[in-house]
Amino acid sequence: MDKKLSLKLNGGSHVLGIVWGFDPFIELVMGDPWMATHGNNNIGMVVTPGNSIVLEALEEI
């Protein structure tokens, strides 16, 4: 995949990163993510359940 995404999560968090993969339930695995909500912290790797995200593509998918 290797596409840049901006995710808004339930609870108000905002994560920026690169999609490494996903499954049929739209659970995303992101590499090099940044938690923009909490001072731009690099948080390693993120696995996000699909029912908790609002998705905005930063480049064409």
UniProtKB/TrEMBL annotation:
Which superkingdom?
Eukaryota
> What keywords are annotated for this sequence in UniProt?
Ribonucleoprotein
Q: Report the InterPro entries cross-referenced here.
A: Lsm7/SmG-like, LSM_dom_sf, Sm_dom_euk/arc
Q: Which GO terms describe its molecular function?
A: RNA binding
One CC-aspect GO term: U12-type spliceosomal complex
Stretches assigned to the Sm domain: 1-55
Q: Please, one GO biological process term?
A: mRNA splicing, via spliceosome
One Pfam family it belongs to: LSM
Q: Which family does it belong to?
A: Belongs to the snRNP Sm proteins family.
- Cited PANTHER family: SMALL NUCLEAR RIBONUCLEOPROTEIN (PTHR10553), SMALL NUCLEAR RIBONUCLEOPROTEIN G (PTHR10553:SF2)
Question: Can you name this protein?
Answer: Sm protein G
Q: What is the lineage of its organism?
A: Eukaryota, Metazoa, Chordata, Craniata, Vertebrata
